[in-house]
Design goal:
The chain is of the alpha/beta class. The chain contains 12 helices and 14 strands. About 30% of the residues are buried.
Length: about 375
């Protein structure tokens, strides 16, 4: 594919314009041209990347790759009187929409309920990618890809989007001035406008490997670092141990595990993944690693018990259902009767001699909760200690 770009504007002859021409010999300031060779015709590809500094012609090239296809604007066309979950594929399937939001890294559920104009730059970027992935055009070009967001969010967001886009059909060309996303995006081809160089995926470096280090921490870490990203408001579980996953010294995910010895098990809760690390599978790997730790008898009291985990997050439910390490044990459309739960807890406390115990109670919500049990690679066997 040969692309010729020729731009022309008025040749101004003001005093200052004439002086600039004389000082710098810039007689051709009104003309700009570029010829690009993109050997992509007849090849199987899904993701292309045009990268280079500002002013090097990326947008002009992008405008001519797919004739008649305008550049897709991630930030326009949103109805700011509605939450983003209503704006993305309004006639489509709810599970597909929420799945795409999670897949591109916008798994922060409260953000789904906000209009586009109040989201952060990173959230707007990912919401736009989710809408694009749901619409799934045959051809698309996205300008300023990752240009207005934090570089960590940009790299993880690029990896999450590439993973999502490759699950379906369609060709997309991304335009960016940042080279740091290349190894994370892993495009099928790259054109560098600064060097006028074209190269394909087999010439790219592999995506960086992330080393997740898990530490047991105090319960005070959760309210200080993670609570604002947790969409439920529940009391901390009794006798729970807390775990935090770190990547390059940065806390990225959190989980609590409490004993449930009456059922010969543990229960995991408060799984939180920081927004800038969502969409690349960190959360599910972290959850499985902590559950395996308990299955191997390294948790509280040293029992080799499986771990139960409850969630209402559609994408996480799907991931656990498709994992051989997990089995689904139940699904409920709403929580238990909170008053009955409170009375039961109060009677239990009184039997133990604590007559002044507060009746907290659990349940009373309308969340569709699904239950899972971690059994590991080989399946759980009741072997006790």
């Amino acid at each position: 594919m040969r692309i010729e770009v020729n731009h022309h504007c008025s040749d101004f002859n003001s005093y200052r314009a004439a002086r600039v021409k004389s000082l710098f010999n810039a007689e051709k300031g009104c003309d700009w041209g570029k010829i690009v060779e993109l050997p992509i015709e007849g090849k199987e590809w899904q993701i292309g990347l045009i990268v280079g500094p500002s002013g090097s012609g990326k947008t002009s090239i992008g405008n001519r790759i797919f004739e008649g296809e305008p550049i897709y604007d991630l930030y326009s066309g949103w109805d700011n009187t509605k939450p983003i979950v209503d704006c993305i594929a309004p006639d489509g399937d709810f599970n597909v929409v929420t799945g795409m939001l999670s897949a591109v890294g916008l798994g922060d559920v409260p953000a789904w309920l906000r209009p586009f104009n109040v989201l952060s730059n990173g959230e707007k970027f990912r919401a736009g990618l989710a809408r694009l992935a749901c619409e799934r055009p045959e051809h698309a070009v996205v300008d300023e890809f990752t240009s207005v967001i934090d570089r960590q969010i940009a790299k993880v967001g690029a990896a999450a989007f590439a993973k999502t886009w490759r699950r379906g059909k369609g060709q997309i060309v991304l335009l960016s001035c940042h080279y740091d996303i290349i190894e994370w995006l892993q495009p099928d081809w790259v054109y560098d406008t600064a060097e006028a160089r074209f190269y394909e995926r087999d010439c790219l470096r592999q995506r960086p490997k992330l080393e997740l280090q898990i530490y047991k921490v105090r319960g005070t870490v959760f309210p200080r670092l993670f609570k604002q990203h947790y969409y439920l408001d529940l009391a901390m579980p009794v006798a729970a141990e807390c775990f935090v996953g770190f990547i390059n010294g940065e806390p990225v995910c959190h989980l609590c595990v409490a004993p449930l010895f009456t059922a010969k098990a543990y229960r995991a809760t408060r799984l939180v993944v920081m927004p800038e690390w969502q969409g690349i599978g960190v959360g599910t790997r972290f959850l499985s690693a902590v559950c395996e730790y308990h299955l191997q008898g390294k948790g509280r009291c040293g029992y080799k018990f499986p771990v139960f985990f409850h969630t209402s997050h559609p994408q996480l439910c799907g991931a656990l259902r498709h994992s051989k390490k997990w089995i689904q044990t139940g699904a409920r459309l709403y929580g238990d009767n909170k008053g009955r739960s409170a009375e039961s807890m109060k009677r239990s406390a009184e039997r133990k001699g604590n007559k002044d115990a507060a009746a907290i109670g659990y349940g009373g919500h309308f969340r569709a909760v699904q239950a899972f049990k971690y059994i590991g690679e080989n399946g759980y066997q009741d072997i006790g200690k």
